[in-house]
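Attaching the record inline, Q. Sequence:
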Amino acid sequence: MDIWLGNLHLIGMKPRTAPTILIAGPTAAGKSALALALAARLGGAVINADALQVYGCWRILTARPSAAEEAQAPHHLYGHIAATAPYSVGHWLREVEGLLNAPQPLIFVGGTGLYLSSLLRGLAAVPPIPPDIRAAGDRLRAQGAEAFHAYLRQHDPQLFTRIDTANAMRLQRAWEVHQATGRPLSQWQRDTDPPLIGTGATKVVLQAEPDWLADRIFQRFDRMMEAGALAEVVAQKPTWDPSRPAARALGAGELMAHLEGNLSQQKAVDKAKISSRQYAKRQRTWFRSNMADWRWIPADIPVQTQLDLLLP
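Structure, as predicted:
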């Protein structure tokens, strides 16, 4: 694959001539290490495409690149948002747009499929959701993802057949859009803005075997705890709101339950590991359904070997 064919296309801008690389993969698959190695080899910049690594309160718990790693290459859109601030894929795309004039290679990396797919497909310009509908959606989501199933089967069956039916946040979004606008989200998605990235970008998914990845997830969470993940959660306790997007950081809810006296620390860690493994399974399913045309490379091989597979 000729990586130097990568380009971006933005309305009103000249196409990029430097490489554009997108790296997807489940949590703990080694995406950040590959991105950093590519940035070092190509003289490029790394752009975060993970919905939780944008929050300044979570460096350890979201496995954000360390300060030392960030010093090795330019890193953008990491840790720059307050946990209490509103933030969505639309906010992220607007920030990405401001980075596209950079002359160096751009390496987008993250496990949030919606962020990466929106770069390639555009994003529907849905009007803001009124606060009362958002609050009603939050109350429904507290009952579990199944609370939205029957409604979306009836009012947006096209979307329901392809959405992750276990992802309560995504289901809530579809429910809110229909409640607020009277139009299914799938119809809004058909009327999307032009994508920021053209068809020439190099698109890579790190493919991880479940057992290998589970071991990585468990070992990494133990290292997170040793590095101070609990202290990060303690710092959020005074303003903690489980309905905020920042609260979805893997392990945050379980560790907060421990701090509130509802779980022992070991039980919280065990539950966080299981939740992380389940999340990785959902990611793999989403990538298989939505990124079949991407290039898949093994996650369990050395980074240098991954570079040799990708670079001309």
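The mean pLDDT is 90. The radius of gyration is 19 Å.

More tomorrow.
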